[in-house]
Amino acid sequence: MRTVEKLRKTPIGTIVSAANHRLIVKRFRAIVKGKMVICRGCVFRSKGGANSCEYMTACFAKYRPDSESVVFEEVVG
Q1: Where does the pLDDT of residue 47 fall: very low under 50, low under 70, confident under 90, or very high at 90 and above?
Q2: What are phi and psi of 72, to 5 degrees?
Q3: What is residue 11's DSSP assignment?
Q4: Please, are residues 37 and 49 in contact by the beta-carbon 8 Å criterion?
Q5: For residue 75, what are the CA distances in angstroms to 20, 26, 31, 35, 67?
Q6: What is the rounded CA–CA span in Å between residue 44 and residue 72?
Q7: What single DSSP character describes residue 30?
Q8: Is residue 12 helix, strand or coil?
Q9: Mean of pLDDT values over 44-53
Q10: Cα–Cα distance between 12 and 4 in angstroms, integer?
Q11: Tens digits of per-residue pLDDT, 52-73?
């Protein structure tokens, strides 16, 4: 299963291993700056904002089966 598809289907609150990281899926409230969505706290955050991120289909509510926007934070420890 592709990493993006695996992350897209992972429920909120779940810890998952993907893209060489241990990640926890957390609910996210979008922060919009101009036309960019700022993904504060996400391990995949990119300079171009959410619209240029290769993982955007895993985190945008409109692409997820649970219809929730999420960020992927690295689990420490």
Answers
A1: confident
A2: -115, 110
A3: P
A4: yes
A5: 12, 11, 23, 30, 23
A6: 7
A7: -
A8: coil
A9: 82
A10: 15
A11: 888 989 998 999 999 999 999 9
**pLDDT over 90 at 7, yes or no:** yes
Which residues have CB under 8 Å from 49's CB, separation 6+? 33, 35, 36, 37, 38, 39
Q: Are 10 and 16 in contact (CB under 8 A)?
A: yes
* pLDDT greater than 70 at residue 1: no
Q: Is the pTM of this model over 0.85?
A: no
Round to whole Å and give the CA distance between 74 and 23. 5
Structural Rg of the chain based on CA atoms: 12
Range list of β-strands (E), 1-77: 15-18, 21-27, 31-33, 36-38, 70-74
pLDDT at 50: 79
Tokens 């904002």 identify what position? 49
